[in-house]
Write a sequence for this structure.
């Protein structure tokens, strides 16, 4: 991002050294490579994952991949799509198994664009990221490993970390300097070890799992569904995959077994023999086994995700758990995304270094929820089979009364969590809350349904310049910028408020005017997302029909420069069928007076404020950004 | 498809020789290559279209490309999407231009999956087909041309055509034998010429057009919309393109001009100067011109599309017209599709050779409609500007009264036509009508909204085996098979009718039992579309919730073999908000008793019949297929 001073003249300098090219390392690398950082990325495997491993992409991750433009490449592999989960148990009387229920994996009370889990071999997913990295000039160095590192901010405040790298055959070594070091090494993280960070085991129970990917021939009716099968012969989890493949998870041993041995194993044939018994009276035969593995796994969580906010851990290096909930890769993606934009905000000169301290609490709490969820989820079913009516009720929008039902509550939490929409970051400098230093009374207007620290609500709108119907939440690509959504209500009512907003944004000491691009005078007129500042993209949404909006008349110049980000809130939405302006209504913003929503670069709501005449709106946003940006903000009367 | 007898021992034998690798030739080649035919495909250009030419893909063509699995590759190029058309005219008082109206290019009264036109450079589209052909072992031979051909069915009834091919530099020649020859050569078709087929000019007026693709800088607000601009300085059509490009069409001369000269031309600079005047008071400047061309074009239509039903013409070889309606490539695609499946049905041994005689009347009428539409469309606007309320009314579902308004009627026809959904093939052996030889009283039950010769109505359903929500009309890929949709109503009511249907389909002399695969005993259990017959794919749709359907209990074996084609009609649809079974309701079929719909391999409805107990349903379908298949159909009591 800036000219690099050569301090250790003989050593190569990088913004970041990333160790491990699994989902977490690849997501971090891909984000930072797109935003122009210099990356050294190594992996100790000779090639990407050839078979097996993680394979579930949750709805929230699909949103993210779409936002990065990577979803079409993933979907081109035709992943299996899981919309429902089926439960099979022994019948009350008799032997074998019967279906005792099904439920939606992402029921309609969750407003998801893609209400399903996509299942695809991890190697295919990795290669989509690797291809994108290649476009941005980053190649993964394989098979290389990290031998050690030292960090000394006094000796070199800019590139404090020296990292020793080595080819795994020991024939080549390299020492490089970096601003950051990231461990995406998986559960056995050497970086975590060198830092002396310990793993806490939340649940003392460990398990040995067998997992088998293959093509089967069976008359079991739900072989293309995700299934949990309990039988007198043991339990199995069925997960459909691309290309007619099926993944089976079988628990081989548990530390609660009387003869527990974490090194207990089972052959491919033994697992197939067990599976045949569990599936009885249905028949199952293997035509081909693509991958088979047995591994012990315990629930563990890293005590720290970083010590000095220069060396970070993410993904399996921080949290290990059973594979059942299909959360590993998704949690890894979101760890990386969370860290990526914060490093960018700091290194690009926008945010205080202190925002890096929010990475650990935000992501560690998600990991803790994941681990406790893992248990809750199991109990939910072992206690009793829910009645079909309960599942049906729970799948829909429910009244406050119904929410009191413990089952419905746990079910909803489970669905929100597994879909990825349950993440709720707690208040901090980035996620406004009552204790935030921003205290303007305009903040968090009555009625808003947006919650800070949670994902922005989905909405369809019509883009004014080309009349395209678009997903508003997808309109700003993952460009590392904060997204300022100006819900502008009715143009006739908000005309002055909108002009005042633009006027005060244009102030040189506003959060916006303080961080203009140095090259602002030579930006191409085709630049759609960052014409003025690399830290913000502004979208303006009117509660009006597209044909009633004339950009040159209704939109102040500063906002009109984002021509491709002016929208009409004129699409009908089934969730708010009577609303005249569905997007405003879904956000819980006044359909006449609007409001302003700041969304973090990773898609989570930072703050919501009223849109008012005068300087109040910008003042409240100055207060918000002032809590973590590098400059002192405030108003002067100067204009852009 | 079959072992080839070597009659002319020294010559290569092909199922078809295709001349020209534009849209029509490529679509034909791609279909036939997928279905296993031996193809010689030549083109006289050294490479695919480098710039310019056709670029508009209409909603119906997007459906077709999706059905072929080619849509993602097209959309990966990020085509511009046109949802609305804007009209600009001189103001009543004063100079310059003002927007006088906009309308949806595919309004909501058309039930389109993709209600927009995608605009993408023809070369990109060609390359998507070429890549698919390559996967199926077909390479286009370039730059080669056809020198002549002769056809003699007596000398060789199987490969009657001898074709002489030559490299365009004259250094290499080749003579090959073929069952069919196809001209996709464009307006100047040497094959048409050799056959002595004449062109009839429907409209005696010719025009000279200038067309320019480029990147512009402008303050014209609708530069990302499709626009028709009339000004005192002339007329222009604006069409947005991928990568910030804009296409402008300018009429340079017309045969109605007093100084008409079909060789009149204009330089790039002259056209830009004209455009600047027409856009006034808006400014427009070119940053880059990618393609500029001037060409005279008249409306013409080929008198015949074939003479002997061995040598066929399609695409621009059959019809030329102004580029304004963006119909050229779309009409070409549908010409090819229409011919492809008919050749397949004949050559695979299912249909009488006589069905080839339906190609010309079906497609020629479309071309004739296109040409007369071209004029109507122009007149619609030159007469008067429609009131905004009229356009609004016309865009919605309208009452019979409103339909009487001439403007509304023409508008609707225009939208249906340009979207590709207006094609309505007339009754013939394939499209049932009252004069068809099938006369069972079960045919065309009261209330059905499906019309034979038109595309099947769209509907969402839930696939039973994996709970995936799918587009029913897309569920059978373009596999050359007839699609039998069994709308099975309520399982409790139709159980016997469904069993009877399966029983009589299983009869060896039914249309179904008469055309089983020769390899039926060794078909893989993974085969989802053609387990029994290459000529049919069966889908069964119940008017029930997915969770209520148990395939092993509710679906007779013959239908259950199509496990992946059993659906629950349980998705809500805004167009029939009160229906319990939306797909049944949209088709206008009884939600309790169902009905059977036969859809031709190209997606057009062939026949609709009631689903009844006994043999009646299969008898009526035997009557239908008996009108054009190679075997005598009828019932015996034998079973599959």
């Amino acid at each position: 991002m800036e000219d690099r001073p050569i301090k250790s003249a003989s050593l190569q300098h990088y913004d970041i050294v990333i160790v491990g090219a699994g989902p977490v390392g690849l997501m971090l690398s891909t984000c930072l490579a797109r935003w122009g950082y210099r990356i050294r990325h190594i992996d100790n495997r000779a090639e990407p994952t050839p078979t097996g491993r993680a394979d579930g992409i949750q709805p929230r991750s699909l949103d993210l991949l779409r936002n990065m433009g990577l979803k079409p490449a993933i979907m081109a592999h035709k992943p299996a799509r899981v919309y429902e989960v089926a439960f099979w148990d022994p019948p009350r009387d008799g032997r074998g198994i019967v279906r005792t229920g099904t439920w939606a994996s992402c029921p309609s009370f969750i407003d998801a664009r893609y209400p399903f889990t996509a299942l695809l071999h991890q190697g295919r997913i990795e290669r989509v990221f690797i291809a994108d990295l290649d476009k941005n000039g980053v190649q993964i160095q394989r098979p290389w490993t990290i031998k050690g590192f030292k960090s000394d901010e006094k000796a070199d405040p800019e590139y404090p970390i020296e990292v020793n790298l080595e080819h795994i055959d020991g024939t080549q070594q390299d020492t490089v300097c970096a601003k950051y070091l990231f461990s995406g090494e998986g559960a056995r993280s050497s970086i975590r070890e060198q830092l002396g960070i310990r793993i806490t085991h939340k649940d003392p129970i460990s398990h040995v799992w067998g997992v088998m990917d293959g093509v089967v021939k069976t008359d079991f009716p739900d072989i293309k569904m995700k299934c949990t099968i309990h039988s007198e012969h043991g339990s199995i989890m069925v997960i459909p995959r691309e290309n007619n493949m099926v993944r089976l998870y079988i628990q081989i041993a548990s530390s609660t077994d009387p003869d527990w041995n974490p090194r207990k194993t089972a052959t491919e044939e033994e697992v197939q023999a067990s599976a045949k018994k569990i599936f009885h009276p249905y028949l199952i035969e293997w035509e081909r086994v693509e991958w088979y593995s047995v591994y012990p796994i315990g629930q563990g969580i890293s005590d720290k995700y970083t010590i000095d906010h220069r060396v970070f851990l993410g993904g399996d290096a921080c949290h290990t758990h059973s594979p059942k909930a299909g959360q590993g890769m998704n949690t890894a993606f979101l760890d990386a995304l969370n860290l990526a934009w914060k490093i960018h905000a700091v290194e690009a000169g926008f945010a205080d270094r202190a925002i890096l301290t929010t990475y650990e609490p935000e992501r560690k709490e998600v990991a803790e929820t994941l681990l406790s969820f893992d248990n809750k989820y199991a109990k939910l079913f072992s206690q009793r089979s829910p009645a079909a009516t309960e599942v049906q009720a729970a799948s829909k929008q429910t009244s406050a009364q119904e929410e009191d039902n413990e089952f419905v509550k746990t079910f909803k939490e489970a669905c929100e969590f597994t879909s990825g929409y349950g993440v709720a970051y707690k208040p901090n400098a980035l996620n406004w809350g009552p204790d935030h230093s921003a205290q303007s009374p305009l903040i968090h207007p009555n009625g808003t349904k947006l919650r800070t620290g949670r994902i922005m609500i989905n909405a369809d709108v019509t883009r004014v310049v080309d009349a395209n119907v678009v997903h508003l939440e997808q309109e700003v690509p993952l460009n590392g910028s904060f997204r300022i959504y100006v819900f502008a209500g009715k143009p006739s009512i908000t005309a002055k408020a909108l002009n005042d907003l633009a006027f005060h944004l244009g102030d040189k000491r506003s959060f916006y005017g303080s961080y203009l691009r140095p090259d602002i005078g030579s930006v191409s007129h085709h630049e759609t997302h960052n014409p003025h500042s690399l830290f913000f993209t502004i979208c303006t949404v009117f509660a009006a029909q597209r044909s009633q909006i004339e950009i040159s008349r209704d939109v102040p110049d500063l906002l009109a420069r984002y021509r491709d980000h002016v929208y009409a809130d004129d699409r009908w939405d089934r969730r708010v069928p009577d609303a005249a302006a569905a997007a405003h209504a879904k956000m819980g913003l006044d359909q006449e007076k609007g409001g302003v929503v700041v969304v973090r670069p990773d898609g989570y709501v930072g703050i919501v404020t009223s849109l008012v005449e005068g300087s109040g709106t910008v003042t409240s946003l100055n207060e918000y950004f002032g809590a973590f940006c590098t400059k002192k903000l405030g108003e002067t009367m100067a204009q852009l």
Remarks:
- Chain B is about 25% helix and 25% strand.
- Chain B touches chain A through 37 residues (CB under 8 Å).
